Structure formats: structure tokens, C-alpha cells
Amino acid sequence: MEEEQHLSFFLEWYDPQSDQHKPYVLHYHSDSTIELIERYNKRVFLKRIRIPTVTLDDLVPGGSITVYSRQLTVLDVANEYTKQLVKKKATKALFVIRPKGYAHMGAIIKVLEQSGLVLLNAVMVQLQQYHMNALRPHCLQTSSATLRGGGDDAEFLRDVSVLVEVKLTTPNAFEDALGKLDAARLMGNVLICESVGLGIFSSPHSGSSVSSKQPMLSGFPTTAVFDNCTLCLLKPRMIREGRVGDILDEIVKAGFEISALTLLHLQINDADEFFRVYKGVLRQYHEVLKYMCSGPCVALEIRGEDVVQRFRDFCGPFDVQIAQALRPASLRAKFGKSNLFNAVHCTDCPEDGVLESQFIFHALASK
């Protein structure tokens, strides 16, 4: 009998007790079961089993999965067969939300999610001329008639843009997204690049003059200000269920200023360091850590006067049932399911707003 083909990936797990990174090979089978093999001695670490929280969409380089409380980082595909199948399945596209489209960023991302596009990366950036030069050859003519001639660069150089890298999950997802953006009259707020991602900006001859000491998010300097700010984390379920656009739309329409944005994968040690201040009040502390590391989050720096208190009120009580009873218009009331799956984290104490923003947008970005 011919042996079943399966997808294989290189992973590693950081063992805090031995302070070592332990390498594994994960086999992903056609029935969605997985198997873990110790990479170098070939011993079976985990026999073939189905883990409902681990899907093929989670197995992307740089991402992470959680298997029985162990957070494993996906390093790369393990063979040419997997490389070709993943490449065929995971066609990318890049949407650049223009500075003038800031107020519509939530609506634009909502359209992408509703069209079946999966967020791979998102980051708020201040583009430079060398970025525009790298971007120009890849833009669709429908979204960049003036950009191709260089006359439109000034808008991008003056203010921040949001880069959104997506994976196409169906053959028609890209065209569906374009049609919906056009129907919603949002096309003028976005540049669209087919079959590329943020990697187009990583050319070694890009001409960047950014200091190597500056914190970088997906290769870009952070736009975080670290002043009069609070932190919001959109939790993994919001990304999995395609609700990022909905929440961003609510935040912007409520009048809050989003000064920094990034999609990130928290590692368990980083999550523990960040949430340790809440350890005494979180009843499911270790479950919270595992959940926050189970998939990507979206982090936002939000600015304004008395913003910690105002945004905390906007998010609503931590307990979703209380939020639905007392603040039905709050984010947790609208998007939360339980205390663990309550949609968002927000800074609790006014003195912690800058500290939490610095942790995400400076300390983690500097690692």
C-alpha cells in the first residue's frame, strides 16, 4: 500500500527548566491529525492525534500552536512537498490602507475578513520613499493609477498607513474582496498588491536609514507615541472569527485615536510578564496565558485625554454577563462570550497605560 502523504513542519519548544530550545517535526495528516517527532533522534514525542485547536491555517512560519500546554513556534516547512502545497494554498495579497483611509480602516478590514481572507500580518507604519519604490511595481492599476507615476507618494510620506497582509482561502476570495470594496466605495482608500506580502519591503538594497536600535514591527519602526495612551489587545478568537474590522470600526467611530497597530504572536514567557500584574485578579490566570498564546493578537496604542478610564469604560466590565447587563453597547458585551473569551484586553490603571504600550511596542519589538 502506498504511504499516505502528509505535510511536515519544523517547530521548536522553549523549555524554561533547561533554558533550551527543543526541535521537533510536526506531521499534519489529511484527517487533521498531527504527530510530533523529536527532530534529531527521530523518536515519537506525540502519537498521531487530533487537536481541535491546531489547524493547517495555524502552521505558518513565525506563528505558534499550543499542544497540551506547550507553546511551539513554527519555524519553516520541512520538505519540498509541503512547500509546494502550502505555496499553492496560501496565495497572499497586500492591502495598503492610505492615510486618508484611516477613518475607514475598520470597514476595509471587515470587507477583507468577510470575503474569506485571513489576516497574516497587519502593522501601522510611516512609509518612506524607498518603501514607495518597492510598492509601486506590485500595485494593481485599479488602485494605483497615480502611484505608478509617482505623483501620489506625498500623501503616504506625510502620515501613517496600515499594511494588511492576507492569505487567500478560496479561488475567488480576492476578486470578491475587490468587488465589495468597490461596492462600499472604499477602493479609493486602499492600494492593492496581488500575490505579495510584507516581504517586498525587505530588500537588502532598500535604502533604509532607520537606526538598528529603533524598535521594529514587521521590519518597520513603531509609530507608538508612549504618551497619554492606553493599550488594547484584540484576543485570538477575534482574529480567528474575523472580527478585527468590526472592533476597529467601533473604536474609530467612538472617537478614539489609534496611534499604533500590530499583529503579534505572544510567547508564553512574554505573556506571563505582561499579565503578571493582573495575576491576583484573574481567576483563570494560567488558562488566560495559554489562550493569549494560542494564536495571533492585534495590539493597539490608543491615545487621548483620560484615555485609560474612557477606553476601559468603552470596553465594559471584564465579566461578559455583567457587561451585557450594565453596558450593552460596550465591546465586551457585543463581542465577548465568557470571561476567558471576552474579546479584548485593555489597561486597567491610568499609571499603566504608557507601561503596557511600551512593553508591546518597544520591549517586545526590540527583541
From TrEMBL:
PROSITE patterns named in the record: DM10, NDPK_LIKE
GO terms, biological process: CTP biosynthetic process; GTP biosynthetic process; UTP biosynthetic process
UniProt keyword annotations, A-Z: Cell projection, Cytoplasm, Cytoskeleton
Record GO terms (molecular function): nucleoside diphosphate kinase activity
Protein name: DM10 domain-containing protein
Entry-linked Pfam families: NDK
Gene Ontology CC annotations of this record: axonemal microtubule
Coiled coil (UniProt feature): none
Keyword Cytoplasm on entry: yes
Entry-linked PANTHER family: NUCLEOSIDE DIPHOSPHATE KINASE 7
InterPro entries membership: DM10_dom, NDK-like_dom, NDK-like_dom_sf, NDPk7B, Nucleoside_diP_kinase
Localization in the cell: Cell projection, Cilium; Cytoplasm, Cytoskeleton
Family: Belongs to the NDK family.
Keyword presence, Cytoplasm: yes
Domain DM10 span(s) in chain numbering: 3-90
